[in-house]
Design brief:
Blueprint (H helix, E strand, L loop, with lengths): L3 E4 L11 E4 L3 E4 L4 E2 L6 H12 L10 E8 L5 H13 L4 E9 L5 H8 L6 H10 L7 E7 L2 E7 L2 H6 L5 E6 L13 H9 L1 E9 L4 H10 L2 E6 L6 E6 L11
Parallel strand pairs: 5-6, 5-9, 6-8, 9-10
Antiparallel strand pairs: 1-7, 2-3, 3-4, 7-8, 10-12, 11-12
């Protein structure tokens, strides 16, 4: 049975940021002066940057719990595309826990509008928005299916992650552009990301700014540059030194 519950815990976040809509259904943040996803094709970018950049789905095809952390839930696009690919490849005894940190959670109707661009994730979009609370705040916990849990921590990412007991197998670093949202790429937050990563765990991000790369290296990751998506020259991915980890801690 699919179950959902939402609990409000401190810190709570203001619901919704000021949005405008471009090209019909593409949300644009006026607060950060940036699009929520790649204008070429955000779903394909998710596959290229976040999934392939973390060696997925190959790494999760084994029993146990695989835990993904995400900075920036945004429209829920990465969560939906990851869930779609997870359902197609997951092992019989596998579980996915997708945990995202979001300062300004959208409302269900905004999520649905933003995700409607991709018929490939219609099923995931409809399921997510049906479960999404009317006023998301605090900790939102959604059991998407028997093998998939989504947790969205609404509030300041550094505060939420610092207090989290979880360790992650892979990270999707998907905040707004570093030049427009430096706090999401700060040395302090990158240190917490690495500290909440299992040995051999990984990260991937579309960002390639020099200070982002330096902060990730200083945090303890072995960082490499790879070819970016579409017209973007580079992206970053890396691993926390230690034994290669496919399954995170419960």
């Amino acid at each position: 049975m699919v179950m959902t519950h939402s609990t409000s815990t401190s810190p709570t976040a203001p619901v919704g940021q000021e949005l405008t809509w471009r090209d019909g259904d593409m949300p644009y943040s006026t607060a950060f002066d940036d699009h929520f996803y790649c204008q070429t094709d955000g779903r394909l970018e998710c596959g290229h940057v976040f999934l392939a950049g973390n060696g997925l789905p190959e790494r999760w095809v084994r029993p146990g719990t695989f835990r993904i952390g995400e900075l920036g839930f945004g429209t829920g696009l990465n969560a939906c595309e990851t869930w779609r690919q997870w359902k197609a490849t997951r092992p019989k005894d596998g579980h996915l826990h997708f945990v995202s940190f979001e300062l300004y959670p959208m409302r269900a109707e905004e999520l649905s509008r933003a995700l409607s661009r991709w018929p490939q994730i219609d099923a995931e979009r409809e399921a997510l928005t049906a479960l999404w609370p009317e006023n998301p705040a605090g900790t939102v916990e959604l059991d998407l299916d028997d093998q998939t849990r989504l947790t969205v921590l609404c509030g300041d990412a550094l505060t939420s992650l610092t207090s989290s007991p979880l360790a992650f197998d892979a990270w999707f670093l998907d905040g707004f552009a570093p030049a427009r949202n430096a706090a999401m790429w700060s040395p302090e937050l990158m240190a917490e990301v690495c500290g909440h990563t299992v040995a051999g765990g990984s990260f991937a991000t579309y960002a390639a700014a020099g200070f982002v790369r330096r902060n990730l290296i200083a945090a303890g990751f072995a960082v490499e540059r790879r070819k970016g998506f579409a017209g973007k020259r580079e992206m970053l991915c890396g691993v926390k030194p230690g034994s290669v980890a496919g399954v995170g801690q419960d």
